[in-house]
Amino acid sequence: MIILTDKPLDPVAVTDSVRKDGNGAVVTFLGTTRDNFGGKTVTRLEYEAYDVMAIKKMEEVRESLCADYCIEDIGIAHRTGRVDVGHISLVVAVASPHRIKAFEACHEAVNRIKTIVPIWKKEWFADGSRWVACEDHEFVDEAEHRHAHAERHAAAAGDD
Amino acid sequence: MIILTDKPLDPVAVTDSVRKDGNGAVVTFLGTTRDNFGGKTVTRLEYEAYDVMAIKKMEEVRESLCADYCIEDIGIAHRTGRVDVGHISLVVAVASPHRIKAFEACHEAVNRIKTIVPIWKKEWFADGSRWVACEDHEFVDEAEHRHAHAERHAAAAGDD
Amino acid sequence: MQFDVRLFALYRERAGSSIVTVNVPDDATVGDLSDAVRALHPRLAPPEVRIVVAVNAEYADDDQALSPGDEVCLIPPVSGGR
Amino acid sequence: MQFDVRLFALYRERAGSSIVTVNVPDDATVGDLSDAVRALHPRLAPPEVRIVVAVNAEYADDDQALSPGDEVCLIPPVSGGR
């Protein structure tokens, strides 16, 4: 099961899709919106996907994992659009006869998804937003500007 | 949440019990009855618990994991009695701000549960049953008897 | 001292009972009590295998002392699993 | 050849548009096309940063040749996450 949707995800459906009578171990990962990043309060996340390629790459993750870990199937569901704090953006489920492979394959599946699937995450704070993992694409003068701004901000906060 | 029950387990309730807004990663393990062991067809499992000590030891697993992995909470539910093929006997759920710790802590929790919690598993086959992990407690003459029986059985099967 | 020792799983089935009552001297250790149960039920486990004992729902060493009223259980190996 | 290049996320916001139309020579490579988009929108990314390109929903090297009708997208770094 590979799902890309802007609707709420159903972890039980994804998990059930990989359960088989020959498997004794099922590992399910949920990625949820955290309420903070680097000490700042996060109000929500926003996911944007290149949908055709995202689905293709999720299929690739599934096939490569099944081959590398000798497992039968992986279920992956990713949400797009706005995801509020505490809500689920990613579900990955793996079943295997034994638990070691189920844990390893599920963890590695999440790593590969976050590396090759073209889905982007924007963090919204009370005072702005940023696209995650785009640090290398910042301009130096912008970084300096933000840094100076942060220092002014910290100094102001210290005055209270 | 620590549960020991002879009723069907609810993985969603266990998972939800550890979800918090500060956690971005939730890992849930399901242990289910496999339909085979060592090439033999398993028809069902039966779990027997020393209930007071089992709950105490599950609490110990929870406390030690929370300390060792700096996580806030673990949910553990174990079923006792008869568990048919495909049904869930164990649920372990861990949430953490980041996924590496969630995967590691959940896996280690399952390992510790299977090591120190006094719950025993009996596998039922079409032609008999055995208590799992009690190999050291077999008598040599019994082992020889079974071995000789298996050889006779294999020879007979080879005749077909 | 008299103890109603609880048996589980493999031990329960081999003894044909979930409780085995034994009498041991007042200074008996956990190992002595376990030996007393094994003397009554020699087929519980092969002689070379140590039987794990829990006292008051906690794993106990063989040289631990016993007190009247302690809840004593013989603990077969747990499932381990993979 | 003319391409309607799709931009996502950071690039889309910086260009102020999800499509950028560019013209390149018939023997243009992926790198040439990416350069053409950057010439139109110099603030997409700092000059020293390579922009990843997908052609027909597959990651492409900069020296890959292009054909008319190829779907070309500029791909910002994906979230990675922890």
| Count of discrete structural domains of chain A | 1
Radius of gyration of chain A: 19 Å
The CATH homologous superfamily of chain A is called Molybdopterin biosynthesis MoaE subunit
Major β-sheet annotation of chain C: 5 strands, mixed
CATH class of chain A: Alpha Beta
Rounded mean pLDDT of chain A is 87
Note poorly predicted spans of chain A: 148-160
Described by the principal axes of the CA atoms, the overall outline of chain A is elongated
The CATH architecture of chain A can be named as: Alpha-Beta Complex
Topology:
The complex is a heterotetramer, with 2 copies of chain A (160 residues) and 2 copies of chain C (82 residues).
Chain A: E1 2-5, H1 11-18, E2 25-32, E3 36-37, E4 40-49, H2 51-69, E5 74-79, E6 81-84, E7 88-96, H3 99-116, E8 119-125, E9 128-131, H4 140-159
Parallel strand pairs in A: 1-5
Antiparallel strand pairs in A: 2-7, 3-4, 4-6, 4-8, 5-7, 8-9
Helix pairs in contact in A: 2-3
Chain C: E1 2-7, H1 9-15, E2 19-23, H2 30-40, E3 52-55, E4 58-60, E5 72-75
Parallel strand pairs in C: 1-5
Antiparallel strand pairs in C: 1-2, 3-4, 3-5
